[in-house]
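Lecture notes, unit on protein representations.

Consider one protein chain, 119 amino acids long.
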Amino acid sequence: MEGQGLNQSGHLNVLWTSDNVVTAEKMVFMYTKNAIKYGWWDSITLIVWGAATALAATSQQVQALIAEAQEAGVKVSACKECADQLAATDQLESMGVEVKYWGPPLTEILKSGAHLLSV
């Protein structure tokens, strides 16, 4: 993850893989936005992976939630391989979502013991 989130006690990585809209709205975005707003974490990276990638690229409701999270200060990044396979790369990038290969950075997060919440 190139230094961000690794061994930083104030940084949380959230790995979001679910395509469930209720889970996205009532957990992923509710928590990440409030965690920044209330200072529970200094910074948050939301990693969009798997089924969440298609949901983010196609649901206007979820796209609005992503925009709100970004405005609150949540960094949103998506798995490039997933985005490419699901033809979502252009849409995600147009929303200001970073799209990159996440395999090695996620492995680094896991090996380092950095904070990771999987949803």
